[in-house]
Amino acid sequence: MNVVTPFEGIGASVKRKEDLRFLSGRGQYTDDINRPGQTYAAILRSPHAHGRITSIDTAAAAAMPGVVAIFTGADMPDLGGIPCGWQIHNKDGTPMAEPMHPVLAVGKVRFVGDAVAAVIAETRAQAKDAAEAIQVEYEVLPAVATLEAALAPGASLVHDDVAGNICYDWHIGDKAVNEAAFIKAAKVVEFDLVNNRLVPNAMEPRAAIGDYDPTTEDYTLYTTSQNPHVIRLLMGAFVLHLPEHKLRVVAPDVGGGFGSKIFHYAEEAIVTWAAGRVKRPVKWTAERTESFITDAHGRDHVTKARLAMDADGKFLALHVRTLANMGAYLSTFATSVPTYLYATLLSGVYATPTVYAEVKAVFTNTVPVDAYRGAGRPEATFLLERLVDVAAAETGMDRVEIRRRNFIPADAFPYQTPVALQYDSGDYQATLDQALEAAGWAGFEARRAEAKARGRLRGIGISTYVEACGIAPSAVVGSLGARAGLYEVGTIRVHPTGSVTVLTGTHSHGQGHETTFAQLVTDRLGVPLAQVDVVHGDTAKIPFGMGTYGSRSLAVGGSAMVKAMDKIVAKARRIAAHLMEASVEDVEFDRGTFRVAGTDKTRSWAEIALTAYVPHNYPIEELEPGLDETAFYDPKNFTYPGGCHICEVEIEPETGITTVVNFTAVDDVGRVINPMIVEGQVQGGVAQGIGQALLESCVYDSEGQLVSASFMDYQMPRANDLPMVSVATHTTLCTHNPLGVKGCGEVGAIGSPPAVINAVVDALKEYGVRHIEMPATAAKIWGIINASRPAMAAE
Amino acid sequence: MYDFEYHKPGSLADAVKLLSADPDARPISGGQTLLPALKHRLNKPTSVVDLSGIAELRGIKREGNKLVIGALAKHVEVATSPEVKAAIPALAQMAGTIGDTQVRNRGTIGGSVANNDPAADYPSAVLGLNATIVTDKRRIAADDFFQGMFTTALEPGELLVAIEFPIPEKAGYAKMRNPASRYVMAGAFVAKTGGAVRVAINGAGPGVFRQADMEKALTANWSPDAVAGVTQPADGLNGDIHGSAEYRAHLVTVMAKRAIAAAG
User: Where's the Aldehyde oxidase/xanthine dehydrogenase a/b hammerhead domain (chain A) (predicted)?
Assistant: First the structure.
């Protein structure tokens, strides 16, 4: 009897294996873990954005009930600073300024939230009580809270040894060629814009538990991380000087990262080091306010751009000058975001012959800024797609036509851009056409008129984008300053009964890897999905790995699994050949069955697996027992998802409230493994993109206090702020990885913000609006409408 | 939060005794303001006196031409009460828009009115409907009760017992929410009671206030158009990262128009 099983392989919208655990409250997050004898840490943080610590008196606090120990920066003379993972060089070839980032402040505090002291106590409340009792005297120094303030002549220095607060002054592209192209231009469009600073706000606050076994001198860190091996490397090698075999890092279930949990944070080092000192486990869990003032923020660029065009609207050259806020210290990947993840994308989907970009990274007295969903690519896309709309408006061209005229044609791949990247595949006309059709672009003017009759201003906006993810070829990034390789690791462990455990160096914190990766195994090996488990997030279990960010898990981690499965299948065929007394070349394998070609001789997957572990009849002289293979995969190139997002909004002129009424995303993410998960990823990304475009505003005052430091003032997107997002895919395969996949984790957040703002500007076109900075809040839009009212009346 | 003692008195007299004996004791009703403050260590009471066990503070009832709502009535109870819906539908509608489901299932009318958060909803209904605040000691007219940001006529240890609402001929409420907190950015409660018109504005200023120009305009002509031309001065209104005083002033007129339209 044939049992009909539903197809669970590549292309099936299988329900997520992990969701029963999450939805029934059985997830195991870091704060759910409690170790015997556990103590609790509270961190005393600087209330000042900039100041010199003149004294710290812990005596009264140390005498308080339950206090086990109190540590300050002075107690850690042997520890290294929190390292930066990417070295950028200045235009003149000199390396960037890389000031010390102590685990606990030494001498100075540099942002509100900077860690000053750690209290270890029997309970969380006792730790907090004692932290409040620590007496710290500060000599408050002038703060530089914005890029403008930090670059002003005579500005206060965040780091005494970093002149002008400039981390680096970098460039990419051929300046001379670029300048020559501008001279020949028929039209030059100049445009300035801001990419607003964001607070990541993962649902699960960061947490960390340090554990120490005095008998073995082994340390364990449980932490909310997207990449436990990277944390082990950074913290072990650079901060605590612990060798890998004495340091285990576990990242269990993690409730959202969006980039903010890539980085190595001081609290991880504090609890691990303190556990060794007090010889007991030490737990720290961020409160939401701490998340606001210590999780690395995102974006925060100020940019001036010039676009040269010929008389036919063809782009001739692009020149971009960007200031990027680094915050007070260099977070792990901060330096790479406005350079190799941003400026290299400034060709976009366009065949612009020359692009020259200059980026100054600047220290300010604010929370460090680093990668946040999309990291650099949303900034590039926002700039380009606003600029193209402005160029269309100023030359009288149609917004769609100007894009079509400048697209890299589908037959031009592989396409070498003038800013280092070589795109392997894509079809921008096709994603554009599909999106225009799905969004009903042609019928928009009728909808605008209908809305006008209801007193609403309706607008439509388009964004065509490409991004670079699936990071990254180690040699390439190494030559660009990365201090690590960016390969990935996968182990396929076939058990004697044929079931499979997958070990991956990537980490799932919402992406559904436990399902998608299992589908790869089901598809290739024919093992039912229920017999495949995916294990991640523990350096003691996983051979190695670089973690999850930059939409790399499937493209790089999945490819490692494919390579490991290749090894499994090769070995299994040899076992099958032995059992069937055939030559290996004649043994075919197709989803669970080994067959001697052209015969009815077969062996099942389970028979081969059992034989591998019970090798009674086995080619033992030439083949080891067991069926367990590991592969490292180093990608040959980045992957280049792209597509088209179309947004339609309605504005209520009386209040300025914008409602997103339609949103259409057509993305080319390469081969789709699980369409349902891809749709969810795109929807989530679009939600964050709409959040950036309309709602989320991270505001510092001039003293460096974060004004929007809670959900009372920082508006996260809510369900009723969002439309039903129409998601579709149009596939061109990645040409250089074995799955043909590109990645879908960030496209939603990358493509959407300019589509939203282009729609808002379109809705306001009768008011003569050229640009509106994000977030386009109701108050801001009402201000525009109100200011132009007399002019309108005069017409 | 810091340590505190917890009391749950069974009678109004016991609650008043506990609160009067200790100036640093704080009453707690639904806890939607006090609990977050405690969690953030912004408030350090010696003891918290839980009012939830006091039967005298409960109940929603119609008494002649008045609606009497006990201090402990939760927002969800006011929103769904047949008595409120029949007598003052605008009040039920307002209660149904306060905060979110969790807030409405915990927060109480007495707590909200006694707290007098300038961005809260209820104060505008109390003022707009010319309600009377009944305490354990006395009766206070709405016009005398609200005294600016987080300040009321309540004396230390004095407890709000119930609110008596006269039943209006017409009443309506409209608000614009703060985009982040969903508290009120600008709201207007309009009512015509016994022929007298009141317009109470919340959210926009440092406390709930009556808009005399709008009341005058509406007395002459009860229609949205009547207030459309009335400009609320921006002077003294709140301005912050969510909107300027000018924006809020503009919203006052917009919300008043909508409130009148809702009142019918």
Answer: 24-142
